[in-house]
Specification:
The protein is mostly helical. The protein has two domains: 50 residues; 50 residues. 50% of the residues lie in helices and 0% in strands. The chain contains four helices and no strands. Helix 3 packs across helix 4. It is extended, with a radius of gyration of 19 Å. The C terminus is likely disordered.
């Protein structure tokens, strides 16, 4: 009996589900591989795919497509969440709480940088 391979590095990457691969294939070929921020034909095609994905995900979550944000990975997503908490706390005028002590020091540094007068306009 052949040995079954078990992948244990899901923190780094995970296999793509078949339905996700099927949905992505039109945007991985020669007609829609462009940067979605670019104004050329390839970029517009890629942007249309991103916007369709946002609408699909938003509908499944009962959210607005403008509330769906794609990130390039876990670190960027974590930072977005921490900065979002800091901004929400600043708007409330209350203290910010960070549930994990191992990121608290980094979070406090980012919060001070974020809410400093010199940087404040960059995040509006």
């Amino acid at each position: 009996m052949p040995k079954r391979l078990v992948y244990l590095d899901n923190a780094a990457t995970t296999p793509v589900r078949p339905e996700v691969l099927e949905a992505m294939l039109p945007y991985l070929g020669p007609d829609a591989f462009g940067n979605p921020s670019s104004p050329h034909r390839f970029g517009r095609a890629a942007r249309a795919g991103v916007e369709e994905a946002k609408r699909t995900i938003a509908a499944a979550l009962g959210a607005d497509p403008g509330q769906v944000i794609f990130t390039s990975g876990g670190t960027e997503a974590d930072n977005l969440a921490v900065i979002g908490c800091a901004l929400a706390a600043r708007e409330r005028g209350g203290p910010s709480r960070c549930p994990r002590s191992n990121i608290r020091r980094s979070w406090r540094r980012r919060t001070r940088w974020l809410v400093s007068g010199a940087r404040r306009s960059s995040f509006r």
